[in-house]
Amino acid sequence: MERIYLKHVGRYVGSEVEIRGWLYNKRSSGKIIFLIIRDGTNLIQGVVVKSEVPAEVFEAAKRLTQESSLIVRGVVREEPRSISGYELSVTDLEIVQIAEEYPITPKEHGVEYLLDRRHLWLRSRKQHAIMLVRNELIKATRKFFDERDFVLIDAPILTPASVEGTTTLFETDYFDDKAYLSQSGQLYMEAAAMAFGKVYCFGPTFRAEKSKTRRHLMEFWMIEPEMAFYDQEDNMKLQEEYVSYLVQHVLEHCRPQLEVLERDISKLEAVVPPFPRLSYDEAVEFLQQHGSDVQWGDDLGAPDETIISNQYDRPVFIYGFPTGIKAFYFKPDPTRPEIVLGSDLLAPEGYGEIIGGGERIADLDLLMQRIQEHNLPQEHYEWYLDLRRYGSVPHSGFGLGLERTVAWICGLAHLREAIPFPRLLNRIYP
Ligand code: NSS
After folding, report:
1. Count of Cβ atoms closer than 10 Å to residue 330 Cβ
2. Alpha helix locations (H) across 161-231?
3. CA diameter of the chain
4. DSSP helix/strand/coil, 106
5. What domains appear along the chain, each with residue ranges and CATH number?
6. Which pTM value belongs to this model?
7. pLDDT per residue over 228-279, tens digit each?
8. How far is the CA of 112 from the centre of ligand 1 (A)?
9. Which numbered atom of ligand 1 lies nearest the CA of 344?
């Protein structure tokens, strides 16, 4: 008898198979017990009929509690009304372990209660669907960049200097020195782009965000491409292509998950290039007309981003931010040095920023000047300045936040469900 995974159950209609998994749920009508079984890849309903199985098999089915582990054998039947479209007529059942009373029941629980039990919550249908979408987004990312001859280069996690400002650094001891958890792999990708042309990194990044929001995690995963000889226009084109590719991939490979999540597919189908572009100047004017008190020179807040992104059925670029609110490495627009050649990409449906990126300063003197203006210790950036001393070229890149993208594509209200084990303000358990 073949041992199978439920993901492939459709290939086994009429055959007797073995499935190893856990009991998700159970119903009984005296002479028949319905077992909803999960094996990590999908769910199936197993039917145990008293008159058709040995007495000990029926007794074992009766003893099963929620999340008990088991090995079950049976014949696969097509059953369109059943949970996965198939059913298992159980012939045999072995208990691996009888689970204690499971703390997550089909009734509603509060979010804090569930977050305390995240290690168990991951087994729930919705959380399971989210993680499978996340997995597909990572697969699609690898595929997208492989197809375009990018080289994956890993950035370090322990770093001596900040990339995105000094206020959100997680500090740690590094023997007799200080080190910080990486906020972004960008600076290292710039070095790598000068060695390999087109590169990207994908890894965890850390920010001590001191406010509690739906859109911030302390630890999140970022995909950061960096391209030599790309200007900001090339950069935005690549972002458009990448984000559309991700959405198409999920539409193609994650239909069952999107259904579990009750995601409105038509909203995702609209995500095709070109994406609209709005200058920062236009954005400020638009926001002021719509009741925001934002002034030219201010950063856009989450509510501002929501107002803007709600206007479009696909992601929208905002470009040309004031130089004063952007990181030291952004290249100022040569025709208007008070703004930079950088952009944010806002996801639709009010999800806000998923990408930040731009063209980097290629000129040594200007870069040194910006490092000074930002009160950053130049000695920590000497290696980075070397990139402008030895064959400096125009180059650009961006960072896509994986959890923001997962939240948007899955239609989640909060980032905490977009990562397996979220690190939140005041939460580092489990
Ligand atoms: O700060 S960013 O806008 N840009 C950078 O870090 C650049 N150094 C990337 C680059 O050009 N290589 O962050 C990029 C994205 C942002 O758009 C969000 O999607 C995500 O990273 N991000 C976050 N996600 C979750 N939680 C937090 N705290 C967070 N901060 C940024």
Report:
1. 21
2. 186-196
3. 86
4. coil
5. 2-97 (2.40.50.140), 118-417 (3.30.930.10)
6. 0.97
7. 999 999 999 999 999 999 999 999 999 999 999 999 999 999 999 999 999 9
8. 26
9. 17
